[in-house]
Amino acid sequence: MDYDWKKIEEDIRQHREELIDRLVVFSLNDVLLFWSSDEKLKQEQEKKWAPIIHWVDETVNARFKTTSGLETPSVNAETTLELKKYINGMSDKELAAFYVAALNMRSVLLALALIKGRINAKQAFELSELEELYQIQKWGKVPEAEKRRQNLQKCIAAAEQYLKQ
What we know:
Layout: H1 5-27, H2 39-48, H3 50-60, H4 77-88, H5 92-105, H6 108-115, H7 121-128, H8 130-139, H9 143-164
Helix pairs in contact: 1-4, 1-5, 3-6, 5-6, 5-9, 6-7, 7-9
């Protein structure tokens, strides 16, 4: 994926507070917080997502909660304030990569783990697509979805590479 990282960083500088506020609100609907009612998939989510949620909680001093329903999990005001404070401490470069990764993965929590080196791009992709990859094992691949996953994989790798420059 080719991103104009200089332009993204410029946008970050101009709209930093607004983008951070959006990311904090976005975190309330993070893909990692919505667990399946399918017992086998839920076990995979527990095994693979719970450590990321725990790491973010410890790193940010937050307390994110999961749900097996469609309702947004409740999060206390302190969690959102701590997350905002943590994100605000990022450099423009980190925030640019974080923003791109979070929006594409539908996960602020995974993007944070990626940006801070807790996981790599390959792991971030697999974790963000855990449910879809599980469904593929059950039902097979859909060509349009496969293309979307390939683009997502490139996007996550681009964010990781940008931080290494």
